[in-house]
Design goal:
Blueprint: H1 10-29, E1 34-40, H2 59-67, E2 69-71, E3 74-75, H3 80-89, H4 118-124, E4 128-133, E5 153-156, E6 168-169, E7 172-173, E8 176-177, E9 180-181, H5 188-201, E10 209-214, H6 226-230, H7 238-263, E11 270-276, H8 314-317, E12 321-324, E13 332-334, E14 338-339, H9 343-351, H10 367-372, E15 380-386, E16 389-394, E17 397-402, E18 408-413, H11 429-445, H12 450-459, H13 487-490, H14 499-505
Parallel strand pairs: 1-10, 1-11, 2-13, 3-14, 4-5, 4-10
Antiparallel strand pairs: 2-12, 5-8, 6-7, 8-9, 11-12, 15-16, 16-17, 17-18
Helix pairs in contact: 5-7
Protein backbone atom coordinates (compact mmCIF):
# COMPACT_ATOMS: atom_id res chain seq x y z
CA UNK A 1 0.00 0.00 0.00
CA UNK A 2 1.33 3.39 -1.04
CA UNK A 3 1.78 6.02 1.59
CA UNK A 4 0.93 9.59 0.74
CA UNK A 5 3.88 11.97 0.97
CA UNK A 6 3.58 14.08 4.07
CA UNK A 7 2.56 17.58 3.36
CA UNK A 8 4.74 20.40 4.62
CA UNK A 9 2.61 22.47 6.96
CA UNK A 10 1.57 25.77 5.48
CA UNK A 11 3.06 27.82 8.33
CA UNK A 12 6.43 26.12 7.79
CA UNK A 13 6.34 26.92 4.08
CA UNK A 14 5.61 30.54 4.93
CA UNK A 15 8.55 30.60 7.37
CA UNK A 16 10.89 29.14 4.74
CA UNK A 17 9.70 31.67 2.17
CA UNK A 18 10.26 34.51 4.63
CA UNK A 19 13.77 33.21 5.37
CA UNK A 20 14.68 32.93 1.67
CA UNK A 21 13.35 36.43 1.01
CA UNK A 22 15.39 37.78 3.93
CA UNK A 23 18.51 36.09 2.56
CA UNK A 24 17.93 37.48 -0.91
CA UNK A 25 17.29 40.94 0.51
CA UNK A 26 20.49 40.73 2.56
CA UNK A 27 22.39 39.59 -0.50
CA UNK A 28 20.96 42.47 -2.51
CA UNK A 29 21.94 44.90 0.24
CA UNK A 30 25.40 43.41 0.62
CA UNK A 31 26.13 41.64 -2.66
CA UNK A 32 29.38 39.86 -2.98
CA UNK A 33 31.13 42.08 -5.49
CA UNK A 34 33.31 41.19 -8.38
CA UNK A 35 36.76 42.54 -7.68
CA UNK A 36 38.92 43.97 -10.46
CA UNK A 37 42.31 44.62 -8.92
CA UNK A 38 44.53 46.53 -11.33
CA UNK A 39 48.23 46.92 -10.62
CA UNK A 40 50.63 49.12 -12.60
CA UNK A 41 54.38 48.50 -12.46
CA UNK A 42 56.84 51.20 -11.37
CA UNK A 43 54.39 54.01 -12.13
CA UNK A 44 55.44 57.39 -10.74
CA UNK A 45 53.14 58.89 -8.11
CA UNK A 46 52.61 62.00 -10.21
CA UNK A 47 52.31 60.24 -13.56
CA UNK A 48 48.51 60.14 -13.45
CA UNK A 49 46.17 63.05 -13.98
CA UNK A 50 44.47 62.55 -10.61
CA UNK A 51 47.77 63.27 -8.85
CA UNK A 52 48.57 66.28 -10.97
CA UNK A 53 50.36 65.05 -14.10
CA UNK A 54 50.24 67.78 -16.70
CA UNK A 55 52.13 66.23 -19.61
CA UNK A 56 50.58 62.73 -19.48
CA UNK A 57 46.84 62.28 -19.93
CA UNK A 58 45.03 59.48 -18.03
CA UNK A 59 41.32 60.26 -18.50
CA UNK A 60 40.09 56.76 -17.66
CA UNK A 61 41.97 56.52 -14.38
CA UNK A 62 41.00 60.10 -13.57
CA UNK A 63 37.32 59.19 -14.09
CA UNK A 64 37.64 56.21 -11.74
CA UNK A 65 39.27 58.43 -9.11
CA UNK A 66 36.71 61.23 -9.57
CA UNK A 67 33.77 58.83 -9.27
CA UNK A 68 35.38 56.97 -6.36
CA UNK A 69 38.24 57.62 -4.01
CA UNK A 70 41.72 58.91 -4.53
CA UNK A 71 44.13 57.71 -1.84
CA UNK A 72 46.84 60.00 -0.51
CA UNK A 73 48.48 57.49 1.85
CA UNK A 74 48.30 54.15 0.09
CA UNK A 75 51.50 52.18 0.77
CA UNK A 76 53.13 49.22 -0.92
CA UNK A 77 56.57 47.72 -0.53
CA UNK A 78 59.22 49.50 -2.58
CA UNK A 79 59.77 46.78 -5.22
CA UNK A 80 57.81 44.32 -7.37
CA UNK A 81 58.20 40.94 -5.68
CA UNK A 82 57.75 42.17 -2.10
CA UNK A 83 54.58 44.12 -2.97
CA UNK A 84 53.04 41.26 -4.93
CA UNK A 85 53.81 38.94 -2.03
CA UNK A 86 52.15 41.37 0.40
CA UNK A 87 49.05 41.51 -1.82
CA UNK A 88 48.76 37.75 -2.18
CA UNK A 89 49.44 36.86 1.48
CA UNK A 90 48.12 39.83 3.48
CA UNK A 91 51.42 39.50 5.35
CA UNK A 92 54.60 41.54 5.25
CA UNK A 93 57.26 39.92 3.06
CA UNK A 94 59.89 39.90 5.82
CA UNK A 95 57.86 37.10 7.40
CA UNK A 96 58.73 34.63 4.61
CA UNK A 97 62.00 35.94 3.17
CA UNK A 98 60.81 38.02 0.19
CA UNK A 99 61.65 41.44 1.65
CA UNK A 100 64.85 42.08 -0.31
CA UNK A 101 64.90 43.03 -4.01
CA UNK A 102 63.00 40.94 -6.56
CA UNK A 103 63.34 37.28 -7.46
CA UNK A 104 66.15 37.38 -10.06
CA UNK A 105 65.61 35.58 -13.37
CA UNK A 106 68.28 32.91 -12.69
CA UNK A 107 67.02 32.22 -9.12
CA UNK A 108 64.95 29.20 -8.23
CA UNK A 109 63.17 30.33 -5.07
CA UNK A 110 59.62 31.64 -4.71
CA UNK A 111 56.78 32.53 -2.38
CA UNK A 112 56.52 29.97 0.44
CA UNK A 113 53.95 27.38 -0.63
CA UNK A 114 52.62 27.11 2.92
CA UNK A 115 51.09 30.59 2.62
CA UNK A 116 47.30 30.63 2.03
CA UNK A 117 46.97 33.10 -0.80
CA UNK A 118 44.21 35.61 -1.56
CA UNK A 119 43.04 33.71 -4.69
CA UNK A 120 42.84 30.48 -2.66
CA UNK A 121 40.81 32.25 -0.01
CA UNK A 122 38.40 33.78 -2.56
CA UNK A 123 38.17 30.59 -4.60
CA UNK A 124 37.26 28.65 -1.45
CA UNK A 125 34.44 31.17 -0.98
CA UNK A 126 33.08 30.47 -4.47
CA UNK A 127 34.84 33.09 -6.56
CA UNK A 128 36.23 32.56 -10.04
CA UNK A 129 39.86 33.73 -9.89
CA UNK A 130 42.10 34.99 -12.67
CA UNK A 131 45.52 36.55 -13.00
CA UNK A 132 46.10 38.43 -16.21
CA UNK A 133 49.60 39.90 -16.23
CA UNK A 134 52.74 39.69 -14.18
CA UNK A 135 53.28 37.27 -11.27
CA UNK A 136 56.92 37.56 -10.07
CA UNK A 137 56.52 35.31 -7.03
CA UNK A 138 58.51 32.33 -8.31
CA UNK A 139 59.07 31.05 -11.82
CA UNK A 140 61.76 28.30 -11.81
CA UNK A 141 59.47 25.66 -10.32
CA UNK A 142 55.85 25.18 -11.41
CA UNK A 143 54.82 24.73 -7.78
CA UNK A 144 55.22 28.50 -7.40
CA UNK A 145 53.09 29.41 -10.41
CA UNK A 146 49.75 31.17 -9.98
CA UNK A 147 47.60 28.32 -11.31
CA UNK A 148 49.12 26.19 -8.54
CA UNK A 149 48.29 28.90 -5.99
CA UNK A 150 44.54 29.43 -6.38
CA UNK A 151 44.06 31.07 -9.76
CA UNK A 152 41.60 29.33 -12.09
CA UNK A 153 42.93 31.18 -15.09
CA UNK A 154 46.37 32.58 -15.89
CA UNK A 155 47.72 34.67 -18.75
CA UNK A 156 50.92 36.70 -18.81
CA UNK A 157 54.47 36.70 -17.47
CA UNK A 158 55.93 34.69 -14.60
CA UNK A 159 58.91 36.98 -13.92
CA UNK A 160 59.19 40.73 -13.82
CA UNK A 161 60.83 42.48 -16.69
CA UNK A 162 60.15 41.48 -20.27
CA UNK A 163 60.29 42.90 -23.76
CA UNK A 164 56.86 44.33 -24.60
CA UNK A 165 56.91 42.82 -28.09
CA UNK A 166 58.92 39.59 -27.92
CA UNK A 167 57.53 38.79 -24.42
CA UNK A 168 60.93 37.47 -23.46
CA UNK A 169 63.74 38.20 -21.02
CA UNK A 170 67.32 37.58 -22.21
CA UNK A 171 65.98 35.48 -25.06
CA UNK A 172 63.79 33.30 -22.82
CA UNK A 173 60.06 33.46 -23.54
CA UNK A 174 58.09 34.54 -20.47
CA UNK A 175 54.52 34.49 -21.76
CA UNK A 176 52.02 31.83 -20.78
CA UNK A 177 48.34 30.99 -20.83
CA UNK A 178 47.27 28.46 -18.24
CA UNK A 179 50.92 27.46 -17.81
CA UNK A 180 51.44 26.77 -21.55
CA UNK A 181 53.94 28.96 -23.44
CA UNK A 182 52.27 31.37 -25.87
CA UNK A 183 54.00 32.77 -28.93
CA UNK A 184 52.02 35.63 -30.36
CA UNK A 185 52.44 39.12 -31.72
CA UNK A 186 51.43 42.21 -29.86
CA UNK A 187 52.29 44.81 -27.24
CA UNK A 188 51.89 43.38 -23.73
CA UNK A 189 49.73 46.20 -22.38
CA UNK A 190 47.23 45.76 -25.22
CA UNK A 191 47.34 41.96 -25.07
CA UNK A 192 46.62 42.00 -21.34
CA UNK A 193 43.84 44.57 -21.70
CA UNK A 194 42.18 42.58 -24.49
CA UNK A 195 42.40 39.37 -22.48
CA UNK A 196 40.84 41.06 -19.45
CA UNK A 197 37.96 42.31 -21.61
CA UNK A 198 37.47 38.79 -22.98
CA UNK A 199 37.53 37.33 -19.47
CA UNK A 200 34.91 39.82 -18.24
CA UNK A 201 32.63 39.05 -21.21
CA UNK A 202 32.74 35.37 -20.24
CA UNK A 203 31.57 36.01 -16.67
CA UNK A 204 28.00 35.95 -15.41
CA UNK A 205 26.19 37.74 -12.63
CA UNK A 206 25.62 34.38 -10.93
CA UNK A 207 29.22 33.80 -9.85
CA UNK A 208 31.48 36.58 -8.57
CA UNK A 209 35.04 36.86 -9.78
CA UNK A 210 38.40 38.20 -8.68
CA UNK A 211 40.46 39.52 -11.57
CA UNK A 212 44.06 40.39 -10.67
CA UNK A 213 45.07 42.47 -13.68
CA UNK A 214 48.76 43.19 -13.31
CA UNK A 215 50.19 45.17 -16.18
CA UNK A 216 53.97 45.23 -16.61
CA UNK A 217 53.63 48.84 -17.80
CA UNK A 218 55.30 51.23 -17.40
CA UNK A 219 58.29 49.18 -16.13
CA UNK A 220 61.49 49.09 -18.20
CA UNK A 221 62.28 48.51 -21.04
CA UNK A 222 60.75 51.77 -22.20
CA UNK A 223 58.75 50.73 -25.27
CA UNK A 224 55.44 51.99 -26.65
CA UNK A 225 53.52 51.70 -29.92
CA UNK A 226 54.53 54.49 -32.28
CA UNK A 227 51.05 56.03 -32.39
CA UNK A 228 51.14 56.45 -28.63
CA UNK A 229 54.59 58.01 -28.75
CA UNK A 230 53.35 60.36 -31.47
CA UNK A 231 50.60 61.62 -29.15
CA UNK A 232 53.35 63.11 -27.01
CA UNK A 233 55.48 64.74 -29.66
CA UNK A 234 55.47 67.88 -27.51
CA UNK A 235 57.51 66.14 -24.79
CA UNK A 236 61.12 66.95 -25.66
CA UNK A 237 62.88 64.36 -23.51
CA UNK A 238 62.76 61.16 -25.58
CA UNK A 239 62.42 58.59 -22.76
CA UNK A 240 59.73 60.64 -21.02
CA UNK A 241 57.93 60.81 -24.38
CA UNK A 242 57.94 57.02 -24.73
CA UNK A 243 57.01 56.59 -21.07
CA UNK A 244 54.07 58.95 -21.55
CA UNK A 245 52.93 56.76 -24.43
CA UNK A 246 53.22 53.67 -22.22
CA UNK A 247 51.08 55.23 -19.50
CA UNK A 248 48.53 56.50 -22.03
CA UNK A 249 48.21 53.01 -23.50
CA UNK A 250 47.80 51.56 -20.00
CA UNK A 251 45.06 54.09 -19.33
CA UNK A 252 43.28 53.26 -22.59
CA UNK A 253 43.29 49.54 -21.78
CA UNK A 254 41.89 50.23 -18.31
CA UNK A 255 39.16 52.26 -20.04
CA UNK A 256 38.29 49.23 -22.17
CA UNK A 257 38.08 47.02 -19.08
CA UNK A 258 35.69 49.46 -17.41
CA UNK A 259 33.63 49.63 -20.62
CA UNK A 260 33.42 45.82 -20.69
CA UNK A 261 32.04 45.84 -17.14
CA UNK A 262 29.48 48.45 -18.20
CA UNK A 263 28.45 46.51 -21.30
CA UNK A 264 28.07 43.34 -19.28
CA UNK A 265 25.92 45.14 -16.70
CA UNK A 266 28.40 44.26 -13.96
CA UNK A 267 29.71 47.68 -13.10
CA UNK A 268 27.36 48.34 -10.18
CA UNK A 269 28.48 45.15 -8.52
CA UNK A 270 32.18 45.47 -9.17
CA UNK A 271 34.83 46.99 -6.96
CA UNK A 272 37.76 48.35 -8.95
CA UNK A 273 41.01 49.03 -7.09
CA UNK A 274 43.97 50.52 -8.92
CA UNK A 275 47.49 51.13 -7.61
CA UNK A 276 51.14 50.95 -8.60
CA UNK A 277 53.25 48.16 -7.11
CA UNK A 278 55.92 50.64 -5.99
CA UNK A 279 57.06 54.17 -6.65
CA UNK A 280 58.54 55.32 -9.93
CA UNK A 281 62.19 54.53 -10.55
CA UNK A 282 64.52 57.35 -9.50
CA UNK A 283 67.68 55.32 -8.93
CA UNK A 284 69.42 53.50 -11.78
CA UNK A 285 70.27 50.63 -9.43
CA UNK A 286 66.60 49.61 -9.47
CA UNK A 287 65.80 50.37 -13.11
CA UNK A 288 65.96 46.78 -14.34
CA UNK A 289 68.40 45.01 -16.65
CA UNK A 290 66.96 45.69 -20.09
CA UNK A 291 67.54 49.40 -20.55
CA UNK A 292 70.81 51.06 -21.51
CA UNK A 293 70.99 53.53 -18.66
CA UNK A 294 73.91 55.39 -20.19
CA UNK A 295 71.43 56.68 -22.78
CA UNK A 296 68.40 57.03 -20.57
CA UNK A 297 67.06 59.76 -18.34
CA UNK A 298 64.82 58.00 -15.84
CA UNK A 299 61.35 59.23 -16.81
CA UNK A 300 59.21 58.55 -13.71
CA UNK A 301 57.93 61.43 -11.59
CA UNK A 302 57.04 60.86 -7.94
CA UNK A 303 56.09 64.51 -7.50
CA UNK A 304 57.26 65.94 -4.21
CA UNK A 305 57.97 62.59 -2.60
CA UNK A 306 61.57 61.76 -1.91
CA UNK A 307 63.41 59.18 -4.01
CA UNK A 308 61.58 56.20 -5.54
CA UNK A 309 61.56 52.48 -6.23
CA UNK A 310 63.79 50.46 -3.90
CA UNK A 311 64.07 53.25 -1.33
CA UNK A 312 62.63 53.52 2.17
CA UNK A 313 61.71 57.16 1.55
CA UNK A 314 58.09 57.93 0.69
CA UNK A 315 58.76 57.95 -3.05
CA UNK A 316 59.49 54.23 -2.86
CA UNK A 317 56.21 53.06 -1.48
CA UNK A 318 53.56 55.80 -1.27
CA UNK A 319 51.91 55.12 -4.60
CA UNK A 320 49.27 56.41 -6.97
CA UNK A 321 46.04 54.63 -6.05
CA UNK A 322 42.29 54.91 -6.42
CA UNK A 323 39.16 52.79 -6.00
CA UNK A 324 35.72 52.86 -7.54
CA UNK A 325 32.39 51.13 -6.91
CA UNK A 326 29.34 53.13 -7.99
CA UNK A 327 26.90 53.61 -5.14
CA UNK A 328 29.13 51.85 -2.62
CA UNK A 329 32.19 54.06 -2.43
CA UNK A 330 31.58 57.67 -1.52
CA UNK A 331 33.51 59.89 -3.95
CA UNK A 332 36.19 61.75 -2.02
CA UNK A 333 39.88 61.91 -1.21
CA UNK A 334 40.88 59.41 1.48
CA UNK A 335 43.86 60.26 3.69
CA UNK A 336 43.68 57.20 5.97
CA UNK A 337 46.66 54.85 6.09
CA UNK A 338 46.29 51.81 3.84
CA UNK A 339 48.97 49.22 3.11
CA UNK A 340 48.99 46.58 0.39
CA UNK A 341 48.61 43.85 3.04
CA UNK A 342 45.19 45.30 3.91
CA UNK A 343 43.61 44.35 0.60
CA UNK A 344 43.54 40.63 1.47
CA UNK A 345 41.31 40.93 4.56
CA UNK A 346 39.30 43.73 2.96
CA UNK A 347 38.51 41.74 -0.17
CA UNK A 348 37.89 38.60 1.90
CA UNK A 349 35.36 40.42 4.07
CA UNK A 350 33.49 41.75 1.02
CA UNK A 351 33.50 38.25 -0.44
CA UNK A 352 32.28 36.63 2.75
CA UNK A 353 35.45 34.54 2.68
CA UNK A 354 37.10 33.05 5.75
CA UNK A 355 40.77 33.91 6.27
CA UNK A 356 41.30 31.55 9.22
CA UNK A 357 42.99 28.85 7.16
CA UNK A 358 46.03 31.08 6.71
CA UNK A 359 48.75 32.35 8.99
CA UNK A 360 48.14 35.49 11.09
CA UNK A 361 47.55 38.46 8.80
CA UNK A 362 49.37 41.77 9.05
CA UNK A 363 46.57 43.35 7.04
CA UNK A 364 43.41 44.84 8.55
CA UNK A 365 40.01 45.33 6.96
CA UNK A 366 40.00 48.94 5.75
CA UNK A 367 36.66 48.86 3.95
CA UNK A 368 35.07 51.61 6.08
CA UNK A 369 38.04 53.83 5.26
CA UNK A 370 37.76 53.10 1.54
CA UNK A 371 33.99 53.31 1.29
CA UNK A 372 33.16 56.02 3.82
CA UNK A 373 36.44 57.77 4.50
CA UNK A 374 36.31 56.75 8.17
CA UNK A 375 39.56 56.87 10.18
CA UNK A 376 41.79 53.98 9.24
CA UNK A 377 42.21 51.15 11.72
CA UNK A 378 45.84 51.08 10.58
CA UNK A 379 48.15 53.27 12.67
CA UNK A 380 51.50 51.67 11.79
CA UNK A 381 53.24 50.93 8.49
CA UNK A 382 56.27 48.68 8.28
CA UNK A 383 58.20 49.81 5.21
CA UNK A 384 60.57 46.90 5.49
CA UNK A 385 62.75 44.86 7.80
CA UNK A 386 66.03 43.76 6.25
CA UNK A 387 69.32 42.86 7.93
CA UNK A 388 70.87 46.09 6.67
CA UNK A 389 67.97 48.54 6.96
CA UNK A 390 64.44 48.93 8.21
CA UNK A 391 61.77 51.59 8.53
CA UNK A 392 58.52 52.06 10.41
CA UNK A 393 55.81 54.69 10.56
CA UNK A 394 53.75 55.11 13.72
CA UNK A 395 51.12 57.79 13.38
CA UNK A 396 52.88 60.75 11.80
CA UNK A 397 56.37 59.66 12.88
CA UNK A 398 58.66 57.72 10.60
CA UNK A 399 61.99 56.16 11.44
CA UNK A 400 64.52 54.96 8.87
CA UNK A 401 67.34 52.92 10.33
CA UNK A 402 70.33 51.80 8.31
CA UNK A 403 72.31 49.30 10.29
CA UNK A 404 75.33 48.87 8.01
CA UNK A 405 78.46 50.64 9.25
CA UNK A 406 78.41 53.58 9.32
CA UNK A 407 74.92 53.33 10.76
CA UNK A 408 72.37 56.09 10.38
CA UNK A 409 69.01 56.93 11.89
CA UNK A 410 66.51 59.37 10.48
CA UNK A 411 63.30 60.50 12.11
CA UNK A 412 60.69 62.47 10.21
CA UNK A 413 57.33 63.93 11.11
CA UNK A 414 55.29 63.23 7.99
CA UNK A 415 52.48 65.55 9.05
CA UNK A 416 54.75 68.59 8.97
CA UNK A 417 57.48 67.21 6.69
CA UNK A 418 55.97 64.76 4.20
CA UNK A 419 58.90 65.15 1.84
CA UNK A 420 61.44 64.05 4.47
CA UNK A 421 63.78 67.00 4.47
CA UNK A 422 64.32 67.55 8.19
CA UNK A 423 65.84 64.74 10.28
CA UNK A 424 64.59 65.13 13.86
CA UNK A 425 66.33 62.08 15.32
CA UNK A 426 68.74 64.05 17.52
CA UNK A 427 65.87 65.97 19.12
CA UNK A 428 63.79 62.88 20.01
CA UNK A 429 66.11 60.17 21.34
CA UNK A 430 63.36 58.38 23.28
CA UNK A 431 61.11 58.13 20.26
CA UNK A 432 64.02 56.87 18.18
CA UNK A 433 64.84 54.22 20.77
CA UNK A 434 61.23 53.03 21.00
CA UNK A 435 60.86 52.76 17.23
CA UNK A 436 64.22 51.00 16.93
CA UNK A 437 63.05 48.50 19.53
CA UNK A 438 59.90 47.90 17.47
CA UNK A 439 62.04 47.20 14.40
CA UNK A 440 64.38 44.95 16.38
CA UNK A 441 61.37 43.03 17.67
CA UNK A 442 60.19 42.48 14.09
CA UNK A 443 63.74 41.64 13.04
CA UNK A 444 63.74 38.79 15.53
CA UNK A 445 60.55 37.47 13.90
CA UNK A 446 61.85 37.94 10.34
CA UNK A 447 62.91 35.20 7.95
CA UNK A 448 66.32 35.58 6.30
CA UNK A 449 66.00 37.28 2.90
CA UNK A 450 66.01 34.58 0.24
CA UNK A 451 67.58 37.06 -2.19
CA UNK A 452 70.64 37.54 0.03
CA UNK A 453 71.00 33.78 0.50
CA UNK A 454 70.79 33.38 -3.27
CA UNK A 455 73.25 36.21 -4.02
CA UNK A 456 75.75 34.90 -1.47
CA UNK A 457 75.47 31.42 -2.98
CA UNK A 458 76.15 32.73 -6.47
CA UNK A 459 78.92 35.07 -5.35
CA UNK A 460 80.77 32.41 -3.37
CA UNK A 461 80.32 29.61 -5.88
CA UNK A 462 83.57 27.98 -6.96
CA UNK A 463 83.96 29.15 -10.54
CA UNK A 464 86.74 29.89 -12.98
CA UNK A 465 89.06 32.60 -11.53
CA UNK A 466 89.61 35.76 -13.50
CA UNK A 467 93.35 36.52 -13.63
CA UNK A 468 94.80 39.34 -15.68
CA UNK A 469 98.03 39.07 -17.67
CA UNK A 470 100.53 41.78 -18.61
CA UNK A 471 100.11 42.69 -22.22
CA UNK A 472 97.12 40.42 -22.63
CA UNK A 473 93.45 41.26 -22.76
CA UNK A 474 91.94 41.85 -19.34
CA UNK A 475 89.47 39.18 -18.29
CA UNK A 476 85.79 39.85 -18.65
CA UNK A 477 85.12 40.55 -15.00
CA UNK A 478 81.84 41.76 -13.59
CA UNK A 479 81.70 45.40 -14.57
CA UNK A 480 81.66 47.74 -11.59
CA UNK A 481 79.10 50.06 -13.14
CA UNK A 482 76.73 51.99 -10.92
CA UNK A 483 76.12 51.59 -7.22
CA UNK A 484 75.75 48.31 -5.36
CA UNK A 485 72.56 46.89 -3.92
CA UNK A 486 73.37 47.89 -0.37
CA UNK A 487 74.35 51.46 -1.19
CA UNK A 488 70.89 52.72 -0.40
CA UNK A 489 71.37 51.16 2.99
CA UNK A 490 74.59 53.06 3.65
CA UNK A 491 73.34 56.57 3.52
CA UNK A 492 71.29 59.20 1.82
CA UNK A 493 73.86 60.71 -0.51
CA UNK A 494 73.82 58.37 -3.44
CA UNK A 495 74.72 59.83 -6.76
CA UNK A 496 71.27 59.57 -8.29
CA UNK A 497 68.92 61.01 -5.74
CA UNK A 498 69.91 63.64 -3.26
CA UNK A 499 67.65 66.22 -1.65
CA UNK A 500 69.43 68.80 -3.82
CA UNK A 501 68.75 67.20 -7.16
CA UNK A 502 65.21 66.34 -6.12
CA UNK A 503 64.64 69.94 -5.16
CA UNK A 504 66.03 70.98 -8.52
CA UNK A 505 63.60 68.71 -10.31
CA UNK A 506 60.64 69.68 -8.19
CA UNK A 507 60.96 73.31 -7.13
CA UNK A 508 58.45 74.09 -4.42
CA1 LIG B 1 57.50 47.26 -9.80
Amino acid sequence: MKTQPRRVPRHLLAAIATFVCACLTALAANPRPNIVHIVADDLGWKDVGFNGATDIRTPNLDALAAGGVKFTQFYTQSMCTPTRAALMTGRYPFRYGLQTIVIPGPANYGLDTTEYLLPQCLKDAGYTTAIIGKWHLGHADVKYWPRQRGFDYQYGAMIGELDYYTHSDAGVLDWFRNNKPVKERGYTTQLLGADAVKFIRQQSAQKPFYLYLTFNAPHTPYQAPQDYIDRYAHIAEPTRRIYAGMVACLDDEIGKVVAALDEKGLRDNTLIVFHSDNGGTRNAMFAGQMTDLSKTVLPCDNGPYRDGKGSLFEGGSRVAACANWPGRIKPQTVDGLIHAVDLYPTFAALAGAATGKGKPLDGVNVWSTIAEGQPSPRTEVIYNVEPFRAAVRQGDWKLIWRSLIPTSVELYNLATDPYEQSNLAAAHPEKVAAMQERLNELGREAAKPLALIYVAGVGLAHGKPLIASEGGQPPAAVEPHGPAITDEGVGVHDQFETPENQAARHPR
